[in-house]
Amino acid sequence: MAEGPVRLLLVEDDNHVAAALSAMLSRHGFEVTHARSGEEALQALLPDSGAPFGVVLLDLGLPDQDGFEVCGKIRKRTATPVIMVTARADVRSRIHGLNLGADDYVVKPYDTMELLARIHAVSRRTAAHDPGHGAEEGPDGPHPPLRLGPVTIELPTRQVSVNGTTVSLTRKEFDLLALLAQRPGVVFRREQIISEVWRTSWEGTGRTLEVHIASLRSKLRMPALIETVRGVGYRLVAPAR
C-alpha cells in the first residue's frame, strides 16, 4: 500500500542552515516543518497540529530553551523518534540525551548522507514497532519473559525491570538488550549487532553502538552485564540469581 511522505520536524534556529537542510530533505522525499525554537517545536507537536510527525531533528543550540530540556518535554508528549544534532562530542552528553529519550544523535559537522542514514534508520524502526504490526509472538504463542538474574525482559510489551523496578529504555536500547539477552554468553560481532538493531551495514553506526552500550550499562546499573570482547563485539553475561 502506498504511503505519503514522512513528515519531519526540523528544530533549528539558524535560518540559513534550516533552508539548506529543508531543501536537501525535501529532495529525498520528506515533508519538512521548520521550528525556530523549542517552544515552536512543542507547539508543532500538539495533537491538534495536523498529521503526526515521523521524525524530529532537534538541534541542541536553541535560543529559548536548553535542547536537552526540549528533548525531555518532547518525549513526555509523544513517542515520535528524536535525533539530536549537537556539537558536543563527549560520550557523557550523548548518554544524557539518550537517557532523556532521544533515539539517536548526530555530531556536527556531519555528512548529509550520514544524517539521512540515521533518519531512515529510526523511521524504519518506528514502523517495525508500530502497534498496528501486532505483538511479537513465537510459533507457540507470546514470548515468555527473558529472566537473567535480577533482569526481566518482556518482549511483547518491550518492558525491562531490574529487581522488579521498571527501567526506561529507548527503542534502540531495548532492541540491543533483547538481541544480546536471547543468546546469553554468545559473542555478537559489532557488524551483526548493527545489522540487526540499526538495519544497516553503514560503518559510521559503530560509534553509536558504543554509546548505547554505555547507556545500557548505566541505566541497568550493571556494568558487568554486557561484556566487551575486544576486537570482536559484545556478549551478555547472565548474572547469578
From TrEMBL:
Residues 127-136 have a biased composition (Basic and acidic residues). Residues 143-238 bind DNA. InterPro entries: CheY-like_superfamily, OmpR/PhoB-type_DNA-bd, Sig_transdc_resp-reg_receiver, WalR-like, WH-like_DNA-bd_sf. It comes from the Bacteria. Coiled coil: none annotated. The modification 4-aspartylphosphate is found at residue 59. Residues 7-123 form the Response regulatory domain. It holds the Pfam family Response_reg. CDD domains: trans_reg_C. Residues 126-146 are annotated as: Disordered. One of its GO terms (molecular function) is phosphorelay response regulator activity. Keywords: DNA-binding, Phosphoprotein, Transcription, Transcription regulation, Two-component regulatory system. GO terms for cellular component: cytosol; protein-DNA complex. GO terms for biological process: regulation of DNA-templated transcription. Residues 143-238 form the OmpR/PhoB-type domain. This is Sensory transduction protein RegX3.
